[in-house]
Write a structure and sequence with these properties.
The structure is a single chain. By secondary structure, this protein is of the alpha/beta class. The chain has 14 helices and 22 strands. A seven-stranded mixed sheet has the order 14-15-16-13-12-18-19, with helices on both faces. A six-stranded mixed sheet has the order 9-8-7-10-11-21, with helices on both faces. Strands 5-6-22 form a three-stranded antiparallel sheet, with no helix packed on it. Helix 6 links the parallel strand 8 and strand 9. Helix 3 packs across helix 4. The longest helix is centred in the N-terminal third of the chain and has 21 residues. It is globular. The protein starts with 8 loop residues before the first strand and ends with a strand.
């Protein structure tokens, strides 16, 4: 059985802890018991991390593609070797089933492997010019990156935050979530053990507002990469504006799912329900608003309820668990508030809507139907195991509902009408659209949203280029 690790920060290759620093108690959400004490950075720690990152950028920007590729490939290999231990750590501190955490390790593995090849494809171009002159366009690393990773995917999000800057030739200071530090430290350690210079990647934790203000105010920092809520993202963008930092912002969503009456309803349910309960619904691209054509509405709703009630909820460490607890006490409180408001507004509760047991942060898989649009949950991301299922007459009003909110991260649709598939691809406003599929993420594909769901992309070639600046050089 994997033991939860002793916690620390990593600054200039040193495991930093103690020294009278403030600490944060890391809790197992399945039991609500403290499993670790995490040291929090003071201003001096952040200054040291910044100074080290500045040195790291001077080193790493000169690295060859071969060097960067070797580190990323080596880290991927180490993640595979350590997959089981890292998955158990993530399950202990975040709550998700170990089986899901193992898949998440492979998410970082695949990303590192892709970037190990992408470093050889960071092409510039030469422009056509008269003889005796030369004009070229080149891509260069932007500089030290301040990267903020959330708790919902403590392995995969950290892989994203670290992989792209390292592939681009940048240094990075990562502040992962204080609730899930063990996973983040494990990913950083794989990179260091694979030969990444100790100056290139730093891992700090602290009071979020203190850390963000300190790192973003420094002239050393040249880019902000953030994954989290829209509210916090807007706040960080204002801080980043003072130093004109480049930004990649992957913010909140409220995933619409359009289900038309020409589909195999049972097949859609077999995909949609596990997609909803995945990570207890704490997924920025989680399918949430089910916009169902009225002819199949009742079959779809009743089938969804039956499958949600059959979902095995339990400790993520236990074999056969399909859905673990919510990650922290804030999430069940938010669920109670949003579901209660929806019921007051007239929504019908099909199943769930309550906490499970008296230990940990378990919440029952929930289905609400015929939810009025003025219910808070129809406009506020629930970030939990709740499906909102409403009937609609036809395509035009279904698309209108999908595009109603300012959030536009991921959207899904199910239809066998080939021409409709093309119309949906054109008309749905989202950074990512899944048509007859919920698989919208891959190492070689850009991941990101539009409108209030952010801007810029992670993953794919776009993820590396987001950590680079474009320079035009004209020679006479």
């Amino acid at each position: 059985m994997t033991q939860y690790p002793t916690l620390h920060m990593i600054i200039d290759g040193e495991k930093v802890s103690g020294g009278g620093r403030r600490t944060f108690s890391v809790v197992n959400p399945a039991t609500a018991e403290t499993i670790g004490e995490l040291p929090l950075a003071e201003a001096a720690d952040l200054d040291r991390a910044l100074e080290t990152a500045e040195k790291g950028f001077a080193i790493w920007r000169k690295s060859s593609p071969q060097e960067r590729s070797a580190v990323l490939q080596g880290a991927a290999d180490l993640l595979v070797q350590r997959q089981d231990d890292i998955a158990h750590i993530a399950s202990m501190e975040q709550g998700k089933p170990v089986a899901e955490a193992r898949i998440e390790v492979m998410m970082s593995v695949n990303l590192f492997k892709f970037y190990a090849g992408e470093v050889f494809r960071l092409y510039g171009r030469e422009l056509v010019r008269p003889a005796g002159t030369r004009s070229t366009v080149r891509h260069e690393p932007v500089g030290p990156v301040a990267a903020f990773a959330p708790w919902n995917f403590p392995i995969g999000n950290c892989g994203r935050k670290l992989g792209a800057p390292i592939a681009a030739g940048c240094s990075v200071i990562m502040k992962a979530a204080e609730e899930t530090p063990g996973s983040a430290l494990a990913v950083v350690q794989c990179l260091l053990d694979a030969g990444l210079p100790k100056e290139v990647a730093q891992a700090v934790f602290g009071v979020p507002d203190e850390v963000s203000r300190h790192l973003l105010a420094s002239p050393i920092t040249r880019k902000l990469s953030f994954t989290g809520s829209t509210v916090v993202g807007k706040h960080l963008m204002k801080l980043a504006a003072d130093n004109m930092l480049r930004t990649t912002m992957e913010l909140g969503g409220h995933g619409p799912v359009l289900v038309f009456d020409d589909v195999d309803v049972d097949h859609v349910l077999d995909v949609a329900v596990p997609g909803k309960t995945r990570n207890c619904g704490q997924v920025c691209v989680s399918p949430t608003r089910f916009i169902v054509q009225e002819d199949v509405f009742e079959r779809f709703r009743d089938g969804f309820i039956a499958r949600m009630e059959a979902t095995k909820v339990g400790n993520g460490q236990e074999e056969g668990t399909q859905m673990g607890p919510m990650a922290n006490p804030r999430r069940p409180e938010a669920m109670d508030r949003l579901i209660g408001n929806a019921k007051e507004k007239g929504a019908k509760l099909g199943t769930g809507g309550e906490r499970i047991g008296n230990q940990g942060y378990f919440y029952a898989p929930t289905v609400l139907s015929e939810v009025p649009l003025d219910a808070d949950i129809m406009s506020e991301e629930p970030f939990g195991p709740v499906a909102l299922i409403n009937p609609y007459r036809g395509e035009e009003e279904m698309i209108a509902e999908a595009n109603r909110l300012p959030y536009a991260l991921a959207a899904y649709s199910w239809t066998n009408d080939y021409q409709r598939q093309h119309r949906l691809a054109d008309q749905i406003e989202a950074g990512m659209v899944g048509i007859n599929s919920h698989m919208i993420g891959a190492a070689d594909s850009p991941f990101g949203g539009v409108k209030w769901s952010g801007h810029g992309s992670e993953d794919g070639p776009e993820g590396v280029l987001a950590c680079m600046v474009t320079k035009a050089v004209h020679e006479g």
